[in-house]
Amino acid sequence: MSSPTTPTDAYGPRPGRMPGLAVATAVLGTVALLTSPVVAGGLLGVLGLALGPFALRAARRTGAGRATALIGAALSALAVAVAVVMAFVLVWFADRSRDCYQYHDVGPWTRCVQQQFDRG
Prior knowledge:
The chain is mainly alpha-helical. The chain has four helices and no strands. The protein has a domain at 20-91. It has helices at 20-35, 40-62, 66-96, 106-119.
């Protein structure tokens, strides 16, 4: 019975075969960047950054997926940066509009926030 072939069998990497870690890093980086404006993407970006070195090591070993791993790591880093900036913006906005939290309807709250920013 023959053993199953792997991307790193005796004949080298199979052509067209992408290492799973490189793909996982790229997918995490893409999803992280898309969700980073709501800050949750920052956590996915950190996970993508953590997988990046492992994906690059696997790409070096198999000879495939280096560009995908690098793109995934770059997208993950960008997602973390966007999430950090958005967190600062949200904290700044919350501090600036803290006097408006007494309103539970959108209309009065909007007018209050406008007044807070007009006083600036």
